[in-house]
Amino acid sequence: MESVIERIDKNKFFSFSGGIHPPQQKFLSNDKPIRPLSLPQRLILPVQQHIGNVADILVKPGDKVLKGQPLTAIATPMTVPIHAPTSGVVKEIKKASIAHPSAMAELCIIIEPDGDDKWQPRKINTDYHQLSKADLVAKIAQAGIAGMGGAGFPTNIKVNSQAGVKYLIINAAECEPYITADDLLMREQAPTIADGIEILDHMLEPEYILIGIEDNKPEAIQALKTVTKHLDKVRVCVLPTKYPTGGEKQLISALIGKEVPSGSLPIDLGVIMQNVATVFAIAEAIIHDIPLIRRVVTVTGTALKKPQNVWALLGTQVQHLLDQCGYQHHDQQRIIMGGPMMGFTLPSLQVPVVKITNCILAPTNREISPASKEIECIRCGQCAEVCPSNLLPQELQWSAKAKDYDQLEALNLSDCIDCGACAYVCPSHIPLVQYYRVAKAEIKAKKVQEAKAEKAKLRFEARKKRLEKEKLAREEKQRLAAETRKNKTKSSGATGAVAAALARVKAKKAQQDASENNANAGSSAVNEEPATNSVKSAAAAAIARAKAKRLAAQKTTEKAADISRFQRPNDTNDTSATNATDATYTETVKRPSDNKPEGEKVDSKAAAIARIKAKKAAAEKTNVVSTSEPKAANAPVETQTQEDTHALKDTHAQKNTNTDAKADNKPDAKAAAIARIKAKKAAAAKTNVVSTTEPKAANAPVETQTQEDTHALKDTHAQKNTNTDAKADNKPDAKAAAIARIKAKKAAANKANLDKASSEIEPVSKEPTSEKAVTAKPESQKVDVEKANPTTASSEEKIVSANTVSETKATSSKSAAKTTQRKSTANKTSASKTAASKTTAKVKPATKKATSKTATKSAVTKKASAPSNEKTVTKKAAEKAPTKNTRTATKTVTKKTNAVTKTADQANTKAATKTTAKSAPKTATKAATKTAAKSSAKKTTVKSTVKPATDKNANAETDIQTAAQASEKVTKTKTPATKTSATKTSTTKSTVKKAVTRKRTTTSETKVKAATQKASATRKTSTKAKQADLFDESALASDKNNNAQVKEKTSKTLSAEEKKAKIAEAVKKARAQADAKKQQKADS
Amino acid sequence: MAFWIASSPHNHIQAQTPKLMRLVLLATLPGVLAQWYFFGWGNLIQIGLAVLFCVLAEITFLAIRDKNIKAQISDYSAVLTGVLIGISIPSFAPWWITAIGSLFAIGVVKQLYGGLGYNIFNPAMAGYVLLLVSFPVQMTSWAPVNDLIAQPVDFLNTLWLIFTGFTWDGFSVEQIRMNIDGITMATPLDTLKTDISRGLTVEESFVNPVFGQFFSHGWEWINLGFLLGGLYLIFKKAIDWRLPVSFLAGMLLFTFIGYVLSPDSSASTMFHWFSGGTMLGAFFIITDPVSGSTTQKGRIIFALLIAFLVVIIRSFGGYPDAIAFAVLLANMAVPLIDQYTRPRTYGHNQGGKS
Fold it and tell me: Where are the transmembrane segments (chain B) (predicted)?
């Protein structure tokens, strides 16, 4: 048997069954060249002109657009963008009636041309061979090319390189009567079409390229033969004129003698078909960078004086086309868009030309008579004879009238191509195609309905299962909780207390006890350390407030996912910390002690540091302070597994540590305060032991963590590594954070970890952090993001400061100190400036923190800089910052936050007054304790309300816990500072107390906030899964950034100037982040 | 500006069902003229009567069914049915025969089934069969060809004969059918059947003057007339060529088989083709689209089935001609035939299943 190509070479073609020979009427318009039209008054561009998904609109009313500028975005391969056909102004974006028989209104972009016809910058590609196939596909997609033959299928999908294309068929048949658009295009633009064919050849690499063209276009055939003479693959196949040769399936049958199996695509036969106009558009898009903004439209019919082919800009109204061609209105006038066989009548002339519009037909009644009345089918069977799909139209018609959809499907109604041949020949004038369309639509609707019903059924069953599962899980949880309680009681008295605390009812009592303990501890601390500087204390108080606010914000913000990650590290850290607590403390203490000479400053600095830490810690969990990094790294894995026991031990250890360390008393007080806060937040059992708050919180997290353990562990490690490196890298990280707002949150968490681990680990693994950050981004809602950003910034700054501190210790250079001072001043200025806008405010807090850190560093370094200024500034900044943060965190919470701030201020004032009055620190402590107690009581109530929360609330609880942990960390952070200050002055103590009080008040409020935020947290948690998916990709991207950053960091190292630069960068980043956030908000 | 909204396709072939019907009516002319030439006015009168009663019946039933009478009458389907009935009925049959046949065809066979397009039986043939079964004597009393008749009957006499049973001169149909020798003349098919049943061979039977010079005196011209009209219809694509072609081919095949098996008792193919209502059936009866098969393969099967039945009934049945019976039997088989001859849809595997 001779091959397809041999047959074609002999000019022998197959045929398809059926087909008709309606009067061609092409002479009306095929003797005149394509005429360019004048610019219309306005262009109406339907957003969707293709099969597929709706695209997102990129412009807004009032925008000025240039010719060729994309108006919609490419979201998926199935979206096809549209472009401005000429330069002008976007007048409106509204629903307007489109080219549809029903005058259906669809979203349209309406452009008023400015007459300049000014192109957007174009990039002419003379040699497309230099572009990869993917680039070519992307270009085609960007050019908005959809099949121009009628269906409007996105061309980029068709040309996306698929292996095994045997035949590329160029459909130039143009079998519909009247239409000559492709004919004229081929005559006039044959070279460009040849370019397009070569491009497609390059992209698809078919074995043969067949151009299917009907024999009624001799000039076009000649033109094509001439321009494709040099292409060996190309065969111009001249087919006898018969409608519908131009149908995809029919043309394939006619050329290669094979049928496209029902339900599959031509590519299954190794065939890809492109309309010749599409080929032209591809060539223009690739070579001349002209998107699909115009097309040839045949405007014809005897109701026109000058029927002709025109170059119509997409969006041109039909009215404009007809006016240009001398339209005369008749009675019963029909205006048909498309050909007489498959076109549809237009209800008005205001509809626009779209990508698939190839013809506007205005016939008189003489040439195309209005449909006569349908009479009975006489089963003559002529329809069956002409059906190109070999269907039985009259049987379909009966079934359609009887609404027998099963029978319709058995008769393969879905294979009907709506060509209209059956209705054309029907002697009874039955509008068969109309019946089929209706039946098809109804079948489709029916199927959709069935699918919906099926889905609903599945959903119902799934819900039933889920409810059952949840019930079981709840029961199991309760059982486990009960067991743990039992175990605790057995293991130790303290544990028993904890266990009791776990019981929520008990929790309240426990809290009260805790507050009492705290009070005791506080009082002892007060006793030991007399208050010296009221100023310092005030500053410290302010700092504390700020911290508290920030913490609160941060805590609230933190998501369950973050929490889980953090928790592990925290736990580990805690454990290690507890073990090494003394050492760590000592270290911390030592640092301050060095600074003692500058006591006040140092204190303030320390306080600032503490704030920052607290903030960061909220995210990071205090671990940093203890510098237990290596331990933490190792420990995390183990700790996690052991969860409960460890936690208990930790609690003990911590308690011990607290009790032991005199210097630590203050910290304890703080811790207690924190614990309260935590307790409040940790609505559940965590709250129970005030002193043990941390461990408990840790436990709670652990549970949450267990699910995500592996992830968290990995993350922690990675983070730690990153952290270590990160000191130098902090700034880069900050940048990265700024870039990825979402990252920022995670980064904050990571940084905290980093801080902890910072001493040991090396810079290699910045990437993980960034990855986490990335992951976090998707998860975090806007509010979260906002909160997170400040946090991140602060955390970064902290890290920086920590690094600086360590460095400073080593170097202890005066110059460094100076630099720090300068920085601080600079920061202040920037801070004040930034304070104006909220976004800026966020940035500023970060800056302030940084400043404070710097200050701390300087203090550590024994620099003589004037701390008072810094302190005041820092205080202000801190106050502002937290407030702002809180606002940003949750709009709903704003009021509360304000209240908090007020309370904090009041507390400060009180504390100040007290200090000024030189009243005994003890009184202050007592007052603080009282407040704490009250607040704890309040907290308990809050908690109790929170407790009822269902499973969903559990997430929220986790959040709260995290917050609590964070607060704990803060306390820890503070503790070192406090210790230092304690050694130096009693003022610090008072400050601490005040801070504690403030914190308490804040905490209570924070709790409320937390409660409100729970809901949002829950939502966030749900988003986690999605985020996880995004994780990998974002991680890769972030890795690159991190590496770059690491390099930078290493180079930066110790020099003060570099530090300044970093800070400046951080500020910039923070601002950038803020901007990014704004954008995100806007986007969202 | 108001625009006319219509569904695609917008242009349309000029063919219309009424036109199709008129075309078919026109195509019957040669055969009818031949009939008139050989059998006189009788058939023209019968056609007129049949058309009249058919139209009356159609109007009545359309009125009863509350349909648009004018539109449906003007589709000429009732007229065509009447013409076919008139052609089929013996020229001297009494008027009430025609009336009954016409009323039955339109009233029962067509309208009671739902009107045009819904009748499962060919109305003309169903009416004819009713008459043949109910009034065998009147329905088989074909007068001999004009030149064999001793008493030529003019128009008035024919009219008188049809409405009263006697000519103006008092002759009855039986008397007119007698030839000069006093032998009752029958149709060639009838004669042959009788002769063969009497033990004569086909050769011997063909001596009878009713067979004339060729196959069957007079009838061959009538059949040629219908063949001519039929060819015209095929040329005008009013009918599907597959039906008559496969029908005649089927006749050829089955008569040839019979001829080979027993030449003495089987007439030649040519005799079968050109006697009786063969050509009328081939081009005007079995091509009725409504009651025939609609698929291309089905039409071939349908025509072959009719041919087979015709040959069988002519050879072994009790009636001289068999077109009507064969068509009705085949009509009953149409749904089955259509069911199993659905074309393979584009892109589907054989059998119409995907």
Answer: 20-38, 44-64, 76-97, 117-137, 149-168, 218-235, 242-261, 267-286, 298-316, 322-340
Per residue in B290-310, pLDDT (tens digit) is 899 888 899 999 999 999 999
* Shortest CA gap B15–chain A (Å): 5
Q: Which residues touch A437 (CB under 8 Å, ≥6 apart)?
A: A418, B7
B335 touches chain A (CB under 8 A): no
Q: Is the pLDDT of residue A817 over 70?
A: no
Domains and CATH numbers, chain A: 4-334 (3.40.50.11540), 492-1083 (no CATH)
Cβ–Cβ under 8 Å, residues B87 and B280: yes
* Helix ranges, B165-218 (H): 173-177, 188-197, 202-205
Residues of chain A contacting residue B5, judged by C-beta atoms under 8 Å apart: 101, 334, 345, 347
Domain ranges of chain B: 17-335
Cβ of A371 and B12 within 8 Å? Answer: yes
B56 touches chain A (CB under 8 A): no
Q: Report pLDDT digits (tens) over A240-291.
A: 999 888 888 899 988 888 888 888 888 888 898 999 999 999 999 999 889 9
* Summary mean pLDDT of chain A: 65
CA dihedral A748, A753, A757, A758 (to 10 degrees): 0
Euclidean distance between CA atoms B181 and A350, whole angstroms:
89
Residue among A343, A375, A424 whose CB faces B75 most closely: A375
Kindly determine whether residue A368 and residue B4, on different chains, have CB atoms separated by under 8 Å.
no
Spatial separation of the C-alpha atoms in residues A153 and A141, rounded to whole Å? 11
Q: What's the complex ipTM? A: 0.84
Q: Nearest-CA residue of chain A relative to B353?
A: A410
Q: DSSP 3-state assignment of A317? A: strand
Cβ–Cβ of B7/A437 closer than 8 Å? yes
Nearest CA in chain B to A341: B9
Q: How far apart are CA B50 and CA B47, in angstroms?
A: 5
- Residue B167 DSSP code: -
Q: Nearest CB to B295: which of A373, A392, A418?
A: A392
CATH architecture of B17-335: Orthogonal Bundle (1.10)
